[in-house]
Amino acid sequence: MNETGKLEDAPEVNPAAEESILNAPWLFPLIAVLVIAVAYMQSPTLGFVFDDDIIVKANPFITSASHIPSYFTEHVWSKLMLARKNYYRPVFLLWLLGNYEAFGLDPLGWHLSSLLLHLGSTVLVYFLALRFTRMRFASLGSALLFGLHPAQVENVVWASASTELLGSFLTLASMLCYVRSLDAGVRRVLWLLGSAVLYALAVMTKETAIIVPLLVFLHEWWGRPASPDSVRPGERPFGAALLAGVRESWPYAAVTVGYLAARFAVLGGIGNAVVKMTAAVWLDTIPSILQVYAVHLLWPAGLSAFYDYPYIEQFSVRQVVLPALLLLVLAGLLVLAIRKRGGAKLATVWMVFPILPVLDIPIFPRGEFLHDRYLYQPLIGMSLLAGLGIAALERRWTSEISRRVVYAVCGAVAVVLGAVTFRQTGYWTDNMTLYQRGVEVSPRNAFANLNLGVELLNRGRWEEAMAQFRKASDCAPRFYLAQYDLGYGYYVVGKYSEAQPYFLRAVEIMPEDPESNMYLGMTYYHLKQPGPAMASVRKAIALKPNGTGYHFALGVMLKDSGDAAGARAEFEQELKRDPANQPTLDQLRALDTAASPSAAAHP
């Protein structure tokens, strides 16, 4: 630093050194890419897991470009009939469509595309850190922390989570275009236009990209810390700083208004609650959630796709006060460290603000409000903070020995993170491995137990599956899916009398679940109760008109009751959903055969 506090240019080097490979601008990004690729070397060999069966393998929305217009007029899961009307992500659907067109249902291509997105974001983090630190090794440290942090695994190796990867890549690209536009001698309007377009794509991929206007405003407010002409916060008059922030951020604000208008039109609001809870439960639960995220950022051990963190339904010192105090201490230490550094303050905003939407707990299904994948954007800010810290140490500890100590510590941290990431990747090999890990880490998580039970049931291990279903029911007695799975477990082995009360309980808890109503109807059918059977199946159809086999089941019931015309109408509805459905074609053929003697007698 010079006497004014501004960063000086790097010391001059002789031309020979300048031309050497060690000073090539691509060397450190290449090192980061290679190291991270090694940590994720298992990724391309993994299969589809978890929700990939629905979002990738059974998603009619991504099988044809003819669906593209509806990407912009419907919520992201509309064709899957999922009750999660909180996501407007048309660009994410375009990404899924592109992957489907390129790779079909070959998981190799899907995993490679996700890994390339992650590596691309790592490179962008490097160049953004270089703008803030002006030092290559510190920027490499930022890139490696971002790329190797084990909390990133869930996004990188799970195809359905690529929305985080794509949204963050576009967000980083938008911010880099913006800071590039500040350089003298460049075509500023083109860079700004590119930045605004990238932001529009980012926010239509993942909601957390909406922080970009704030980042741009604060970048100006705090003296352009990523620009060569940066000034210390407070050196400019308040009014000038405010006007500069508004001037630079208004195009992004205009994009945000358009995005929010489209989101409101499609979703009927900014978001929709799917879980009812009191304000007290909501507020009491937030400290424990934030504590988990803070711990996973700083000490990423024992990670899983599932965690045992229920709603805090009763105020207590241990569950509310202590986590809140810990967070206050961490926040205080962070404020002391960054209070006079514009770049560090901007990185902190990038670390904190993307996690705030996750605190809107009621918009998430019960038990689904805490996942490491939500840390992808916050890790950008944390990585920039780490890079700024490394750069500060490099400038303060100028001796060769001191710098070698810094480099050695950073290298050791990278090796440890890479090893943990490599191991964590292995837990996503297949569903059985993933769910067993979930139950190991979170034995009282209902989702983990249910998913493991379903996998065991699919493998013919009925008694073990039922034990997992009962455990899930014990963990969450009011969770309709636990009751449904218990009923389904009895249903598949023909124990219809045992299945019936569980399906009834599932419908009582979640009346709008189509599958519970459907299987309750099928259970009634097998128990020779046609009236309740048809009533339940009709309700399932009303809830999910395109449900697989729904119209077929009702058609069979109507046929058995002697209503041939009604049966034919239902079979024809089933064929509209699946024209090549052979059982339905066989049933229609049987109806035609039964009707032909009558037709012959009455020409």
Account of the 3D structure:
With 603 residues, the chain is mainly α. It folds into 2 domains: 20-364 and 373-426, no CATH class; 431-594, Serine Threonine Protein Phosphatase 5, Tetratricopeptide repeat, CATH 1.25.40. The chain is built from 27 helices and no strands. It has helices spanning 15-19, 27-39, 52-55, 68-71, 90-103, 107-133, 136-148, 153-157, 162-181, 188-203, 212-221, 238-267, 279-298, 317-338, 342-352, 376-396, 400-426, 431-441, 446-458, 462-475, 480-492, 496-509, 514-526, 530-543, 550-560, 564-577, 582-601. The radius of gyration is 28 Å and the shape is elongated. Mean pLDDT is 90; it is low at 1-18 and 598-603.
Structural class: mainly alpha
Structure annotation, total helices: 27
Total individual domains: 2
The number of E-state strands comes to 0
Helix-strand string: HHHHHHHHHHHHHHHHHHHHHHHHHHH
In short:
This protein is mainly alpha-helical and 603 residues long. Helices cover 66% and strands 0% of the residues.
Topology:
Elements: H1 15-19, H2 27-39, H3 52-55, H4 68-71, H5 90-103, H6 107-133, H7 136-148, H8 153-157, H9 162-181, H10 188-203, H11 212-221, H12 238-267, H13 279-298, H14 317-338, H15 342-352, H16 376-396, H17 400-426, H18 431-441, H19 446-458, H20 462-475, H21 480-492, H22 496-509, H23 514-526, H24 530-543, H25 550-560, H26 564-577, H27 582-601
Helix pairs in contact: 2-6, 2-7, 2-17, 5-6, 6-7, 6-9, 6-16, 7-16, 7-17, 9-10, 10-12, 11-12, 13-14, 14-15, 15-16, 18-19, 19-20, 19-21, 20-21, 21-22, 22-23, 23-24, 24-25, 25-26, 26-27
